């Protein structure tokens, strides 16, 4: 009887909270070596402590379209897409050797053939990227140069709109990340026309909610 009770408690801990998927949740994932995750229910102001194996000792790089991009950094080189509601998992290539990233984006839902997972690391004048699609056996690595004259521009934000990835810099350049083929990308400077649109900020009003 005690064994059955322990097994039931274990299964209960590994189940998502009963209203998961219906409301936004605040999820606190502890550091390496600590077990369990805390889910805060905003509707009831209540915390649920769970132990979801897929989240143990992992880092959530981003959350888009209902999917988590699990991309370990220092903790693990394991990388995958995970849907917390359906519990479906899509394995991605290992992140070994370690790649330190500043931003992660998912271009579209994983069932879209054009879905791309991209990790970006920002440097002065350049952006280092890793990208892949579900089913790829390795990441494609590339260094992209920003189109400023003195090489001192820096990425301000990265966003996604209708499957396209955009990069906004502090010098108010707006770039479209163009995929030339499956293993090469270029930055297309959209060159906002100041005569018709005084600032990039005003231009971005036509692309709401893509930059966070």
Automatic annotation (TrEMBL):
This is KIB1-4 beta-propeller domain-containing protein. InterPro entries: KIB1-4_b-propeller. Pfam families: Beta-prop_KIB1-4. It comes from Salix koriyanagi. Residues 39-186 form the KIB1-4 beta-propeller domain.
